[in-house]
Design goal:
Residues 102-210 form the LUD domain. By secondary structure, the protein is of the alpha/beta class. It is built from 6 helices and 10 strands, in the order H-H-E-H-H-H-E-E-E-E-E-H-E-E-E-E. The strands form 3 sheets. It has a 4-stranded parallel beta sheet, with helices on both faces. A 4-stranded mixed beta sheet has the order 6-3-4-7, with helices on both faces. The N and C termini lie far apart (85 Å).
Length: 219
């Protein structure tokens, strides 16, 4: 290093020292929310927006008649048969609505194009559906069929994932389900040559039917 270069470096060091210590970054507010507010003040609206953003199909139903029409329209568009439904409460509701379904496991492996299940909670932040193995649907109906339908109520919508997990904890206590899963849109992967493939590890399509909570809806 030449004398001129050395003097220049030392001059910059002296200048930096004269300016005093560098300002400290602001102290984090650990009590502040991690996430910004939801896009909508209504968690149900926020969920619908998030759910569609991650690739889900959202259907709002004010009555059993609308539910029947929406499911019939979905089946017609996708050209699939009646869904497999194994939860007694879901079967009773669909029976009241006049919606055809498959209640047993006959030819399930060969013909499981469509399933319909309940869920534990809906997460507005991420558009996720929280399902568990605690219902009669078990693990298979939310994972194996090519297309998964979910029937839920507005009261099941929570803002954050933590709230959804607390719902599970309050519901089951120490008897936690053997499987709890957050489903955010259709199953997808881009592991192979960065090509997006749907349905690699689960349903290729997920649709949610949000049925209004009304005393005449059969529950």
């Amino acid at each position: 290093m030449s004398e001129t270069s050395r003097d220049s470096v030392l001059a910059r060091i002296r200048q930096a020292l004269a300016a005093g210590p560098a300002p400290q970054p602001p102290r984090p507010d650990f009590a502040a929310p991690v996430h910004p507010p939801l896009g909508s003040a209504d968690p149900v609206v926020a969920f619908a927006e998030s759910f569609q953003r991650v690739g889900g199909e959202f259907y709002y139903c004010e009555s059993l008649a609308q539910l029947a029409g929406q499911i019939a329209g979905f089946r017609q568009r996708q050209q699939v048969g009646a869904p497999y439904v194994w939860e007694p409460a879901m079967q009773a509701l669909l029976w009241a609505a006049g919606v055809a379904f498959r209640a047993d496991e006959t030819d399930f492996i060969a013909q499981a194009d469509l399933s319909l299940t309940s869920c534990e909670a809906l997460v507005a932040r991420t558009g996720s559906v929280l399902v568990s193995a605690a219902t009669a649907s078990g693990r298979r109906l939310s994972i194996y069929p090519d297309q998964h339908l979910v029937l839920a109520r507005p009261s099941q919508v929570v803002s954050e994932i933590g709230e959804a997990l607390r719902v599970i904890q309050a519901r089951y206590g120490t008897e936690m389900p053997s499987m709890v899963s957050l489903t955010s849109g259709p199953s997808r992967t881009a592991d192979i040559e960065k090509t997006l493939v749907l349905g690699a590890h689960g349903p290729r399509r997920i649709a949610l039917f949000l049925l209004e909570e009304d005393e005449n809806n059969g529950e």
